Amino acid sequence: MNKRYLISWTLMALAAISVISANSIFVPSLSYIADELGTSEAMASSNMAVSRICMVVCMFCFGAFADLFSTKRLMQAALCICMLSCGLSAAAWNIGIFDIAQAVEAVSRAMVMLTMQLWIAAISNKENLASRLSWYSILITIAPIAAPSVGGFVADWLSWRYAFILLLLICLAVLVVLSVYKLYEGDKKTGSQGDKERLRVLAGASEQVRAGDRRSGMTRSQGKARFAPMETLREYRRVLMASPLLKLSFSLGWMAWIDGAYMAIASFLFIRELGLSASSLGLIIFTYVAGAFAGRFPILYLQKHYGPRVTFAWHQIIVLLATVGSAIYYFLTGSHSVVEIAITMVLFGFGFSGMYIYCLANSMVLEPEKKSIYTSLFNSFYSIATLLGVVTIQVLYTFGFTSIGIFQTLMVVASIAMVAGGIMHLQEVKILESTDIKQ
Q: What angle (nearest 5°) sits at the alpha carbon of residue 55, between those of residues 25 and 35?
């Protein structure tokens, strides 16, 4: 295999992992941050809501200007923005500055995620694109596995601020190497020209705009990039009104709701109420994300050999086993324990991760010619559900709920909603049996 390709892949992956780590490295020490900055649990978790709002906006708008720059320049910009975020986080003297830093980090994360997908698409063909994207998806889970553990250890040993300083230095090192190395860009047929066009697809650019460009004889190199939000919004409205996308993804949305809420509550739940340290919490988050990592593997086999119903039921049952089991445990014992919550979230992460890949893959084949619209809407729906999970935490804290009480509420409400979502999903699968939902 091409040596430059392997080195480029490693370098791009390191850049992506470094930037994505900034979103989770501080999670185990969130209660420490709240105490040091003199703020409440609700205000301390506000950065997660701000970050996810910025993520949704950036995902939508990124394609408007990214066509003007190469993959290398975009990755360099993402690393620089991440370094700025880490610097602001490390120097934050109040929660407002920390929130701003996390909003800046969301911009870098959106850029690096789309740029990495763009680069993979540019160097791949139809035969290996799906497998490379799958391995990329698995690879970047290293960041949320390693970052919380490292961040928790550094917070206990030195301070949570040093975790951001460490990450800033790592990003700087990757940036220096990336700046002097010539990236592998594929052959002429999949070079920068295909690179830019694929980014518009990934960012949800309108089919009508591209058709207009072709009619006017404009190529990607002959004219400036065009951003047409109104055409895209009309397509979004049509899909939401006429397609089964939301019904198929309703159950997943509640899983994303728990995922966002869990990350917002974890530090206060385990450290303040259950008496753990940030280092110990980092290990628990490690097991949670490791479960999510493992959950990505069975999906390909199940969908290929047993079809959508069995694939969906497998992951749905595992998640319900976790959430309902936790609610039953509380009903029988009157409390929650560290071990019980950790096992619950490992099982949840396993089923949730596979469900995400299953729903994403099937949403892209509902209307193949509108794949970009469906992909963009699906990711927006997923991000909004995660955001609502964080907001739910803030609201419940405001009304005086304890972290244990909030966790119990999440398990009960989501279990009921996921059962309803499962029924809706299977009904839609029956209607769509004549389509190629199995891919």
A: 40
